[in-house]
Each structure stands twice: as structure tokens, then as C-alpha cells.
Specification:
With about 160 residues, the protein is α/β, with parallel strands linked by helices. The protein is about 60% helix and about 10% strand.
């Protein structure tokens, strides 16, 4: 299963938890390694993550993580244009980063027999988000499997990791 994350989750894990407690960060990553085959970051989410706060530090940290965990943590290999995002997702209801993540999954499902997307045929994709509007929109309107970030936090809590 491949998880595609939104910016809120990226910030929570790779910025807030990372700075608060490196050991806890490693425990969270270990859980994610076991739970998911890969974690993909949509390009728009990467831009959002690197554009706010201490953006230079965030950008360097993300590059370090991408290098260190490159087989598992990746920028989405499928490109979704702004026009495609608008086609797949009602962008008035969903932020751009979440729309990009949702559109990645929609494109992978729609074109699973075409070109390089064929490489992912048979893979299961899940959208990990902290945005209840995007979560509801993706699951109810588009049939996308969603993992609310709160559910992931609950899984971690059951393992003794409080975030």
C-alpha cells in the first residue's frame, strides 16, 4: 500500500514531531515503514511545506529525508497538472495540496494501463490527511480510501507512542 500525504501531516511529522522529540520521530517513521510500502509527497505539498515558517531549514531537512529514505519516501512520480486537479477535484472545497494528493490517486486509478502509470497497476493507494473536508470529499465523492491523521495517531497511541 502506498500512502499519499497532505501538507498538514507532513508538517506534523517532519517538522513538529521531528523538532520536539527525535526518538519519537523515529518511532513514528518505523510504524509508517511497517504500515506502508511507500510514502509519496505530492509536488504541491512539497512546495507548501518548503514555503512557510523556516522554509530553508524545512527544505534542507526534506531533501535529507528524501535522500536517506529515498526508496520509501518520495516526491510523487506522477505529475498532475493544475488543469487535471481542477478536473478531478472541486478546488473550491479542497486546498491545493490536498487536491494534488487526491488527483494523484484519481490519475493512477484512471490510467492504470497507460505508460509509466502501468508500473503501479495493482497497488493500493491511501490518502493520509488531517483535513476533514478533504477527507470527506475524497471518500464520499470519489471513493478514495482515506486514513485520517487522528486514526494514525490512535494506532501509534496503542503502541505506546503519544503524539
Amino acid at each position: 500500500m502506498i500512502v499519499i500525504i497532505d501538507n498538514d501531516v507532513l508538517v506534523e511529522i517532519f517538522d513538529i514531531i521531528y523538532h520536539a522529540d527525535k526518538d519519537k520521530f523515529k518511532m513514528v517513521l518505523n510504524h509508517l515503514f511497517l504500515r506502508f510500502e511507500q510514502m509519496w509527497i505530492p509536488r504541491t505539498v512539497k512546495i507548501e511545506f518548503c514555503a512557510y515558517g523556516q522554509h530553508k531549514k524545512r527544505e534542507r531537512r526534506l531533501q535529507k529525508m528524501l535522500s536517506k529514505y529515498g526508496e520509501w519516501l518520495q516526491i510523487c512520480p506522477i505529475v498532475v497538472s493544475k488543469n487535471e486537479r481542477e478536473l478531478y477535484v472541486n478546488v473550491e472545497k479542497v486546498d491545493e495540496g490536498e487536491a494534488d494528493a487526491i488527483s494523484q490517486i484519481m490519475k493512477l486509478e484512471k490510467y492504470k494501463d497507460v505508460g509509466k502509470i502501468r508500473l503501479y497497476k495493482g497497488k493500493k493507494f491511501i490518502f493520509l490527511t488531517n483535513d476533514s473536508t478533504a477527507s470527506r470529499y475524497a471518500s464520499e465523492n470519489l471513493g478514495i480510501e482515506v486514513l485520517p491523521f487522528q486514526d494514525l495517531k490512535n494506532e501509534l497511541r496503542e503502541m505506546g507512542v503519544e503524539i
